[in-house]
Amino acid sequence: MTDAVLAALEFSGIFVFAMTGALVGARRDFDIIGLLALAMLTGLGGGAIRDVLLGVAPPVNVASWERLLTATLAAALVFWQHDRVSRREPVIMVLDAVGLATFCVTGTIAALQHDIAPATGALLGVITAIGGGVVRDVLSGRTPVVFSGELYAIPAVVGATLTVALQEFEPLGVLYVFPALLCLGLRLVSMRRGWSAPGARRRA
Amino acid sequence: MTDAVLAALEFSGIFVFAMTGALVGARRDFDIIGLLALAMLTGLGGGAIRDVLLGVAPPVNVASWERLLTATLAAALVFWQHDRVSRREPVIMVLDAVGLATFCVTGTIAALQHDIAPATGALLGVITAIGGGVVRDVLSGRTPVVFSGELYAIPAVVGATLTVALQEFEPLGVLYVFPALLCLGLRLVSMRRGWSAPGARRRA
Amino acid sequence: MTDAVLAALEFSGIFVFAMTGALVGARRDFDIIGLLALAMLTGLGGGAIRDVLLGVAPPVNVASWERLLTATLAAALVFWQHDRVSRREPVIMVLDAVGLATFCVTGTIAALQHDIAPATGALLGVITAIGGGVVRDVLSGRTPVVFSGELYAIPAVVGATLTVALQEFEPLGVLYVFPALLCLGLRLVSMRRGWSAPGARRRA
Fold it and tell me: Which Pfam family, just one, is annotated for this protein (chains A, B, C) (predicted)?
């Protein structure tokens, strides 16, 4: 049961992240290849970078044709139904927050299967959650929105760190719902209230 | 015989791709290091990304001094003979199409030596063919031309997919000439006729 | 003794490189996440790319929490003391040259522990020294300064090449001070005199 729920969350996360990638591509007037590339990189890139850093080859997100197909379907949906999809952007942003919450937890857990330091595990969880978006932004010619915009990465940092802490105590799998919900809640509240991350105090 | 032909095609492909990288660098007024870096990344980057994703370390394109030297010579040629080289850009574009056709087939075959899904094999073949150009464009500060310009990636997708299909039937090596010629022909015709890949139907 | 000196140089190099990353982020008005990401990528990115290419997983710079902490502290310093830090930019540039000299030698030595060609060893040493800066620039939306600006990469190329040459003769460890000093001296002199690398002869 839990495994099925996890898989459903993973695949929805890939689909939604891939949609955000394809939408950015459409806004830049990229062609179908650009949409597909951005969909794959955004939906699968974060997990792929994590696996490359862990020495998992080929990365799960590249090896699994089901995941490649999921990202491709998201690109196809944006390609053929761009207007319908982009009208639903508020819904997509909520689903994107669900993806963020899923990936920061599952990415951290996947990393901690390997013999690594806790700090490395949390870092790889955050990379899983935000890495695809960073690649999407660089490839579409803008500086990564997670570096200067809304409160997006910090919920993932919180979720990944709490996941590492739970893992230290070897808890039951179901407990990992908490870091995911914490990340999700923090992201949704900050979307609602327009919170942003603090910048450097340049004129302190 | 076939091996010698393949090696000749591979090295010419690296040389021509590296030249296109160095030419982009020269157009941006990069110095000799910028030209060399772009030449290496464009000529060797696609294959290197494929090998990293497959767990081949170091990547063949990084391990082989002959390949490093080939990219270096291309950079040197552009550095010292920029005007002569850039006057021949139409010829370079045809040779670039030969490189594209070579790499989408050889990249797919190299990937399928590993135990991977057919879709993954085709994807890695396409990455081999277009990955270097994407890195070149990102590092020289423009959005990748394969995402919004001419019909460039689709011939590689066609060639890689047909290569995977042939491999399923374990055919003789010489048969792989067909996907390469198909990719080459498609690319040359689309250069001639100015075909471009379809974009998203934004106002459908 | 030598090991302690080497470790001290490595960690200072990471700290200073990370500071330059965070400073670029602050100049672009990135938030704390952007500063942290640029600090990590600049301080740890070059060595991480080298390790990925060598098949060392996870890369030492990602696996070691001490190194992650070092980059984090550099980001924190720039975040809370931006004005004090940026006023000392001339000092930082000198320390950055020390980091460059350290990394081109230690990166080459680390690479040559593996069974690779001399040219590959030198290339990986140069990537260790300048790779983080290239990633920093691409992620902050500018073309890499090492491609078109000052004489920065060439001292690293000289240091890495001399390190490879020394390794061929299996000399004592202390001899590696020479390539490092040569790289450092060349960089400092070129900073002083405003030397830049030669560009392509576009109108030859």
Answer: Gly_transporter
Task: Give the residue-averaged pLDDT of B151-161.
Answer: 95
What value, to the nearest 5°, has the Cα angle with vertex B143 and ends B54 and A135?
A: 45
Residues of B in contact with C100 (CB under 8 A): none
Chain B, window 7-26: residues with a beta carbon less than 8 angstroms from a chain C beta carbon? 22, 25-26
Subunits that touch chain B (at least 3 Cβ pairs < 8 angstroms)?
A: A, C
Minimal Cβ distance to B82: which of C142, C143, C201: C201
Q: Inform me whether the C-beta atom of residue C145 falls under 8 Å from chain B C-beta atoms.
A: no
Q: Which of B33, B77, B87 has the highest number of chain C CBs within 10 A, making it the mutation to test binding with C?
A: B33
State whether residue B64 sits within 8 Å of chain C by CB. Answer: yes
Give the per-residue pLDDT at A204: 43
From B24's Cα to the closest Cα of chain C, the distance in A is 11
Asked if B81 and B22 touch (Cβ cutoff 8 Å), the reply is no
Q: Quick one: which of C71, C69, C51, C73 has its CA closest to C60?
A: C51
Residue C203 pLDDT greater than 80, yes or no: no
- Residue C198 gets which letter from DSSP? P
Give residue A64's region: left, alpha or beta (phi > 0; psi -120 to 50).
Answer: beta
**Which residue of chain A has the CA closest to B155?**
A33
Nearest to A33 by CA among B118, B198, B31, C199: B198
CA distance A71 to A83: 19
Task: Pull the structure tokens for residue A85.
Answer: 């999809």
Are C98 and C5 within 8 A, CB to CB? Answer: no
Q: Which residue of B has its CA nearest to A54?
A: B55
Instruction: Please tell me the distance from the alpha carbon of residue B200 to that of residue B197, in angstroms, as a whole number.
Output: 10
Predicted-assembly ipTM surpassing the 0.90 threshold:
yes
Q: What number is the average pLDDT over the span A137-141? A: 93
Residues of B in contact with C119 (CB under 8 A): 65, 68-69
Average pLDDT, chain A: 92
Q: What does chain B look like in DSSP terms, one character per residue?
A: -HHHHHHHHHHHHHHHHHHHHHHHHHHTT-BHHHHHHHHHHHHHHHHHHHHHHHT-SS-HHHH-HHHHHHHHHHHHHHHHSHHHHHHTHHHHHHHHHHHHHHHHHHHHHHHHTSS--HHHHHHHHHHHHHHHHHHHHHHTTS--GGGTSBS-HHHHHHHHHHHHHHHHT---GGGGHHHHHHHHHHHHHHHHHT-BPPBP-TT-
User: Subunits that touch chain C (at least 3 Cβ pairs < 8 angstroms)?
Assistant: A, B
- The tens digit of pLDDT for each residue in A55-110 reads 999 999 999 999 999 999 999 999 999 989 889 888 999 999 999 999 999 999 99
